[in-house]
Specification:
Four Helix Bundle (Hemerythrin (Met), subunit A); 5-stranded antiparallel sheet; 6 domains; 8-stranded mixed sheet; Methane Monooxygenase Hydroxylase, Chain G, domain 1; 20 helices; flat; alpha+beta
């Protein structure tokens, strides 16, 4: 009954039968999916939200507990307000979660417990915030009191130090008087008593200074103390020290005692008053203890909340497990049905494949495949299988038509190949470049007329197919056609053969009559070589012109570079910086220097000599600046403005250290140049004054779009200029900011505070001596400055001869001081005698 069906209809009928089993399997699967879906819907609608919200509630509560702990470590009110705002949001989210759980399970005692616990947590969090806010307020008051205490102690130390220095001078003067006097015993006894009183006063000043130091140490130790007993002990120790300090003022003169009592009263009020430091520290300790008690309660509440959440989650897990078990039973039933259907489908499929597909379709297709492989291999005369009414029979008919068409195409291809060869030869000939092909034996197979013209020699052989490459290369070398081969023909031929057999990048060859040829060679798959010869004579001419223009541009660039700092010139030339009006804030170390009393020196010299010396000075200083990586801003007469940190920086510390080392090198070089300038007629030795400051400045291009200047501005620049003006000749004066960065590498001396124009507060300054690598860590310096007396000696750096000269000068000075004291005493004694007469 199926004999009239084709292969397609028979297979469709078999597959429809198998598909019925697939429908049964799909029905069982749908039933299983329906049951699983019901279970999952129950889990997702009822149980999972409860568990998820419970866990989310636990995380929110943990965030609130962590926020309360974090508040205790805050240092600013702004941070406290931010955390309190964030905690308020978390508390609202917590209440939303509680409301969500209430909507799922109403009148649940676990939910009521959660509600009470979260409200307690929110209340405790607010209490912690208030306690921390009070703590921060007390911290600000503590800092104010500490500042007042530091200022009072500093004032007391300063007063005591000034008095001790004056007392030391008086003691020394009295000692000299005792040694040099020849007066009567009564006068000498009076001087001895005076010296004893000065020694007693000096001892009292020392004890007062020690008590001030004790008060300062007690205050510093108490700031970090949090135990009430130790705070009380520190308070008593401070009271004793302040009282002792106050009692010692009775031994001082009225002016000093009055100044000290005023500061001691301020110190007493700031430390032990009702609102003093120790009262504030005690209250702060109590506040922190209260906050910790609240945190302990929060920890207990968090534990209670976690336990309740665990109960909710455990209940939800039980409900989910029950729903999953029901879904699993439905799934097992469906799996049994699907397995039965699959077994029946496999049996039916096996019968169809064995009875029909194997016997009828596969055998005929195999025979047809063998014939098709033979046809594809080129055997167009093979016998084809018998055709039939079905699809395989129609394939045999199509293969017959294909074989006949292939025979016809083969004959046409032979004709087209001959035509293609002719076209290829025409195309090669039409190429403007020289083209040639040598086979694996280096014999010329094909070449166009352009190649023949390029390699042909005058009166030499004619290029023809079959010639070897070596023959053509030897003819070119021996005829003198190739410039590089002249005088070294055999060597050049060997190099050219090696290059031809192992082609590399294109090479350029110069031939006679000013002809330049670029040769590009490439190996082919059959071992041959394809070469293209291009005439690049015009390109060579342009290359020479471009090289000449490049040298001119380089000379112009070198001239322009002399007007710019090397770093700025390089950044503009390489394109790192755009040439436009723009600026930025950078931390820089700024250097100002000029020649002390240069105006007076200039007035004594002719302009030509002055210009020569000034240029010599600026050249020497510039070389040192560039060697240290400085950016030279400008020259203003004898003044130089330099900065470190832009456009390139090695870091604020390294920039500051390089700047100070540069200033020291300049100072040392100036000492060497003084002899040279003295020989040039400069009677007064030239010395530099230097000021250095580190701080944030505005740096960049200032001006208009047509004319601009790369420079720096700002208060940091002004301070460096003021320091330079305040420096002594030969002195390097630096600010505290620079000192803090270089103090580990540079030996410095504190000069004191300097009142600077434009700043409301005095600036602490230091004098740079030299690097520790040069002078060592122990350098003996003597430096004394008084209104009518100035002494500065570097014992480490002095030679033996310099030490002898210094000793002689000091000895002469002491003799003159002794003679002056004797003259004063004699005059005083004479006046006394005259008044008595």
């Amino acid at each position: 009954m199926f004999s009239g069906f084709g292969i397609r209809n028979r297979l469709l009928l078999a597959f429809f039968g198998i598909s019925m089993f697939a429908v049964l399997a799909a029905g069982a699967a749908l039933y299983s999916f329906f049951e699983v879906g019901r279970a999952l819907d129950n889990i997702s609608r009822n149980h999972a939200p409860e568990a998820v919200q419970s866990l989310e509630l636990s995380r929110q509560a943990e965030k609130m507990v962590n926020a309360a702990s974090a508040m205790l470590s805050l240092n600013t009110t702004l941070q406290l307000e931010q955390i309190r705002s964030k905690a308020a949001v978390e508390a609202e989210r917590l209440q939303e979660l509680i409301s969500g759980l209430k909507s799922i399970r109403q009148d649940d005692p676990l939910i009521a417990t959660l509600d009470w616990t979260t409200k307690q947590l929110a209340g405790n969090l607010d209490d912690v915030g208030k306690l921390v806010a009070h703590k921060l307020q007390m911290s600000r008051r503590r800092e104010t009191l500490l500042q007042e205490i530091r200022e009072a102690i500093a004032k007391i130390r300063y007063l005591l130090s000034e008095s001790m220095t004056g007392t030391e001078i008086k003691i020394e003067q009295t000692r000299l008087s005792i040694n040099s006097t020849n007066s009567a015993s009564d006068e000498k006894k009076a001087i001895d008593n005076h010296q004893a009183s000065l020694n007693l006063l000096y001892t009292s000043l020392q004890r007062a200074n020690e008590h001030a130091t004790t008060v300062h140490n007690v205050v510093l130790e108490s700031v970090t103390e949090r135990e009430p007993d130790k705070l009380s002990a520190s308070s008593i120790q401070g009271q004793i020290a302040v009282g002792a300090l106050d009692s010692l003022t009775e031994n001082f003169d009225d002016a000093l005692a009055t100044s000290l009592k005023s500061e001691i009263a301020t110190l007493q009020q700031s430390i032990h008053g009702k609102t003093g430091l120790f009262s504030l520290l005690t209250e702060e300790t109590r506040t922190v203890a209260n906050a910790r008690d609240v945190l302990i309660e929060n920890s207990w509440l968090s534990g209670e909340l976690s336990g309740t959440v665990d109960d909710l989650v455990a209940r939800a897990k039980g409900n989910i497990t029950e729903s999953i078990a029901k879904a699993s039973q439905s799934q097992q039933f469906s799996i049994m049905i699907v397995m039965l259907v699959v077994a029946l489908s496999l049996i039916c499929s096996s019968l169809i494949v064995w009875l029909y597909v194997g016997r009828n379709i596969i055998a005929r297709l195999t025979e047809l495949s063998t014939v098709m492989e033979s046809v594809a291999g080129g055997d167009l005369r093979i016998d084809l299988p018998d055709s039939g009414p079905d699809e395989i029979g129609r394939m045999v008919d199509a293969l017959t038509v294909f074989r006949d068409t292939a025979i016809e195409i083969e004959e046409n291809n032979l004709r087209e190949i001959a035509q293609a060869r002719r076209r290829l030869a025409d195309a090669i000939e039409s190429i403007s470049e020289g083209f040639c092909y040598f086979d694996a034996d280096d014999k010329l197979i094909v070449a166009n007329n352009s190649y023949r013209e390029m390699v042909r020699t005058r009166g030499g052989l004619i290029v023809e197919e079959g010639m070897t490459f070596e023959t053509l290369a030897r003819d070119a070398a021996e005829s003198g056609r190739v410039e590089d081969a002249k005088g070294r023909e055999e060597e050049w031929i060997a190099e050219r053969l090696a290059q031809h057999r192992n082609p590399g990048p294109p090479s350029i060859q110069r031939r006679g009559d000013d002809l330049w040829v670029m040769i590009s060679e490439r190996r082919t798959g059959d071992g041959g070589t394809v070469s293209v010869y291009s005439d690049v004579t015009e390109l060579k001419h342009r290359e020479k012109e471009l090289d000449s223009k490049s040298r001119s541009m380089e000379q112009l660039s070198n001239q322009i570079a002399k007007y710019l700092s090397p770093q700025v010139y390089e950044s503009i030339l390489t394109g790192k910086k755009e040439v436009k009006v723009a600026s930025r804030r950078r931390k820089l170390t700024v250097f100002f220097s000029d020649i002390a009393e240069f105006t007076e020196t200039a007035d004594q010299m002719e302009s030509e000599e002055l210009t020569k010396i000034l240029n010599h000075y600026l050249t020497e200083m510039t070389q040192i600046a560039l060697a240290h990586g400085a950016t030279i801003d400008k020259y203003v007469g004898d003044a130089i403005v330099i900065f470190f940190g832009d456009p390139d920086t090695r870091g604020a510390k390294e920039d500051a250290l390089a700047c100070v080392e540069m200033a020291i090198a300049m100072r040392d070089r100036m000492i060497e140049l003084q002899e040279t300038w003295r020989d040039s007629g400069v009677a007064r030795p030239l010395q530099c004054r230097t000021g250095i400051n580190t701080g944030f400045c505005t740096v960049g291009n200032f001006g208009s779009e047509d004319r601009m200047d790369y420079t720096i501005i700002g208060s940091g620049v002004n301070l460096a200029s003021r320091l330079e003006g305040a420096a002594a000749p030969g002195e390097i004066l630096i600010s505290f900011e620079t000192y803090a960065l270089v103090k580990d590498e540079i030996r410095t001396e504190e000069k004191g505070k300097l009142k600077v124009k434009g700043l409301a507060y005095p600036v602490e300054t230091f004098v740079s001596i030299d690097s520790y690598d040069k002078i060592g860590s122990k350098r003996e310096l003597i430096r004394e400055e008084h209104p009518n007396f100035n002494l500065k000696m570097d014992l480490t750096a002095m030679s033996e001869g310099e030490r002898n000269v210094a000793a002689e000068i000091l000895g002469q000075t002491l003799q003159k001081l002794g003679a002056s004291e004797k003259g004063k005493k004699h005059s005083k004694q004479r006046k006394t005698e005259l008044s008595g007469a």
